[in-house]
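**Entry details**
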Amino acid sequence: MFGKTRYKRTLIYAAIGSSVLLAMVAVLLPGYRLLMAFFLYTATLNSGLIPFPTMTFAIFLGKSHSPFLVAAVGTAGSAVSSVIVYYLMVKLSHKKSMRRIENNRFIQSWKVLARRSPFLGLVVFNTIPFPADPSRFLAIFNRYSMVKYVMAISLGRFVRYSLLAMLGDTFRISNGVLIVLTVALIVLPLLAKKCGSSGSNVEIGKLGTRSS
């Protein structure tokens, strides 16, 4: 128990320390402020609870900064958000509404798959440009080790951000294209969700009409 507590505290202190260090760098080195903004972005808005895209941001930074540096900063932010999400989801898991979600058949099926290789699954789903939220939340529902959880996400995100930054460095995609792509990545999922909910309402209306 002592060992687990010590590792958790180490992660938390490391997250706080890296945040303070990066803030100091942003003040002392103005040329790196965009990287610091990327850190804050990945640590907050891209926590998984609010799925804003990071792909275009990493590509943009890759045009002016080392891919390794971009990946390191983005990974540090993702590690901070992972600790926050882990503790938040553990607290929420005790609520009745979260228990219903956890007991859902779909979630239960995925939990079986997640138990087979949770670390590798987290790494893969955080590397590929695919919504990683299900794998992250399922790992927490399975009471997966927080230390391994953060390590797996950090490893996957480091690879992802490195590849994206190298893409920006190699192809020099214009800022206009990146802006359009960012808007599309935000708007399209919202439209898909809206269309899905509308379709559900139509089906419910049909069922009501048939029953009457």
Observations:
- The two ends are 60 Å apart (CA to CA).
- The chain has two domains: 2-173, 174-212.
